[in-house]
Amino acid sequence: MEYTTLGWSDVKISKIGLGLWQVSETWGLTNYSEVKAIISKALEIGINLFDTAMVYGNGLSEEYLGRALKDTGVKREDVIIATKIPGEYLDPMDIFRTVNASLKRMGVEYIDLLQIHWPPCWHNFPTCKYGRALEKLVLLGKVNYIGVSNYPLILIEELRSCFSTIDIVSMQYRFNIVEREAEEELIPYAEANDFTFLPWSPLARGALTGKYSLENLSSIKDFRARDPIFSPTNFTKIQKVIDILRELSVKYGKTPTQIALNWLLTYSPVIVPIPGAKKPEQVVENAGSIDFKLSYEDWFKLSEVGREIRLSYATNYLE
């Protein structure tokens, strides 16, 4: 495993993490023994960054993560726990209550990285009011670092201006070969400020793994069956990228998944993908994206084809 630092800090994190949204009814991974096997394999191969959220499985993801870390016997200081607090929990009083509950679920004394999952879209919580509460958690030692997820730049700037003694250290957004909105201003902002950029959905919810085609889309039975990514209209466009991923997988002796993740790693040194896994074998496959590098020509080829794709997120409604 190769390592980098968490943003401007001196905290060492693996260059690929493990996302844990799949530990939920949404994805269907709710068996503890299966989750433990996945986390154990991640630890075994050197992954130390685990990304979860308070709302994943209504707390189940956090609970199973904490339980698995305890059962494996790993030292607390050897893992980086990143969780997320949703926007509707950003009332200052709720911030302390929910973080306390999160700590209890995971059985830990502190959270390494607390990320704001999304802005308080449905409430009028003043930014500086909840910003100061988050800062207080850092000063009290219950949180080490603060990050943002799914935040527009204007709100990031406002939040940062509210802090007196801290700053954010990371940014998390949707980003992959075919969903590229983040490259317009978000990734450049992370690079300019030495923030780690954590792409969620780095494999476009599995669309870039090479597992799916227009012929077997009907085999998808989880929530992705209604995801615009997997609509025939959009997937027809994505198929162009999948074809190149398969071509390059033969050239490099890697899987389409590994090629797609390496494209992200090559994109910028601040990028640390956090793909999920439903089996230990997928953890190993994801980690295998690090030990090689796409040539500039191959990276550019994927980049250009992906850039030409324009997905419609209203496809299901329009069709």
Automatic annotation (TrEMBL):
Transmembrane segments: none annotated. Keywords: Oxidoreductase. InterPro entries: AKR, AKR_Detox_Biosynth, NAD(P)_OxRdtase_dom_sf, NADP_OxRdtase_dom. Residues 15-305 form the NADP-dependent oxidoreductase domain. One of its GO terms (molecular function) is oxidoreductase activity. The keyword Iron-sulfur does not apply. This is Aldo/keto reductase. It comes from Staphylothermus marinus.
